[in-house]
TrEMBL record, chain A:
Keywords linked to the UniProt accession: Cell membrane, Membrane, Transmembrane, Transmembrane helix, Transport
GO BP annotation list: transmembrane transport
Locations listed in the record: Cell membrane
Gene3D superfamilies associated with the record: MetI-like
Protein name: ABC transmembrane type-1 domain-containing protein
Family: Belongs to the binding-protein-dependent transport system permease family.
Species whose genome carries this gene: Kitasatospora cheerisanensis KCTC 2395
Transmembrane regions: 46-68, 80-104, 189-211, 235-255
UniProtKB/TrEMBL annotation, chain B:
GO annotation terms (biological process): transmembrane transport
Domain of life, source organism: Bacteria
Protein name, UniProt field: ABC transmembrane type-1 domain-containing protein
Location, primary (coarse class): membrane
Lineage: Bacteria, Bacillati, Actinomycetota, Actinomycetes, Kitasatosporales
Taxonomic source organism: Kitasatospora cheerisanensis KCTC 2395
Family: Belongs to the binding-protein-dependent transport system permease family.
Amino acid sequence: MTFTYLPIADMIGYSFTDWDGISPEKNNVGLKNYTDLFTRPELFKVFLVSGVYLIAAAVQICLALYFATVLSFNTKCRNLFKGILFFPYLINGVAIGFVFLYFFRPHGTLDSLLALVGIHGDHLWMGDPDLVNKSLAGVSVWRYTGLNLVLFLGAIQSIPPHLYEAAALDGANRWQQFRHIIAPSIKPVISLSAILAVSGSLAVFEIPYIMTGGANGSQTFVIQSINMAFKFDKFGLASASAVVLIILILFVTWIQRRLVPEERVELS
Amino acid sequence: MTADPVTPARRPRAARKIHARSAVAGGAKYLSLVLASGVVLVPLLVILLTALKTRQEALGTGPLDLPGDWFNLENFRIAFTQGKMLPAFLNTAFILLISVTGTVVIGSMTAYAIDRFEFRLKKLVMALFLLASLVPSVTTQVATFQIVDDLGAFNTRWAPILLYLGTDIISIYVFLQFIRSIPVSLDEAARLDGANSFTIYRRIILPMLKPAIATVVIVKGVTVYNDFFIPFLYMPSGDLGTISTSLFRFQGPFGVNWEIISAGTILVILPTLVVFLALQRLIYAGFAAGSSK
């Protein structure tokens, strides 16, 4: 509790000041930090970056759904595939950062692989502002799909098997089984993943910070706040932006709860 | 698949067709799985290859070329000694042990208190817990930093420990779920036998929480082992690196020596792989339970 609410309270306090984090005096500047935040375009741009991650999160959920469905029907080497797809989620973030820095390097793994299938030319996967966020979002898909997969798979496996048998007798094909049996029964898990995806995409930090440090337009909201606070000593502004982020996340969650009236379904 | 009307006479052919179709579907299924596995594994394998190369090989050959000597462990040695990986592993182990034990004790006690006792503002506390679990902790670091600093914990191993212990709402939820399933009549029977609340917790609740403890230990353990941000922010001192921050510091001194960075990366991933292979079943169950709360 102490480390969640006290900081939030403090932060709301700081957000109205121009405190630099060190000097004893804090001047009350009213709403200036907030108006700054919404009027300076470069501070606002980070939301566009979040959009890229949001799209990636949608891709990730679809992929996870597909593979969870595929793996829930009898498939050879099922556990092997599940293990392989899940493993990235357990890997240390810094390690992932390095793995993909090497992967995306000019003349690196990705370029070599593309050359194998006949696409030549060097792409600045990390250097080109148009590409960098897509590359980074790709890493995030690589990392988190496994978690969604395991969540969905767990939910799918709790569906009683006789439902499939009945459906098969009625002549339902795989897609119909998915559409009418699987999708409705795992809806709570999907909506939960969606909430996590939204708040996750607003709070992306680790991978871009390790891989680019926020350079070339890959700055996310959190990197920006952290830099504001610890590099440029603008604690007030940083606090204001964190408050905005928290409000946004709570707002999204609230909308979500409204749209999907949730009956608590016990999964385990 | 479209359901075209099938007359009895055509049935065998249709059946064969369906059979062929499902074979194609099956093929596509395995193809997609193999492809996805490839996407997961290739970046990792390339790092392993690079870690086994000598400096010249790493510079001169393409990333997909195989190393000349499969047992060239020199890079690992350099990464382990010069990269300060040993103290990093020790630091991480220390933090991990205390945080995980502490989380289990605090989490289970809190859950026990919340579920079994009535107190004022209980609803409010629950609502606050739920709300807090939605706020990503990265966002509040600006202010948390001040508190940790005021406590004098900055740049000690206690800063991350404090934070790991203090911000764990998910584990309280996991415990709460389990405690709810333990019949209250057990408590009452023990109380009639003269047991006090602590004895009930110690003798009845805790032993029955074993599956929940396994979940919390795994989820928390992986989180702490992999956490980069908290040690990065709160323990900038070079001697206090955890595996994440020590690996992160490879970027400077080893510059473009990818073979050494790769070796360090492999060293960090290896324990995770071993634990994963050993505890696969528990890990899936743990993460499924831990994140759907």
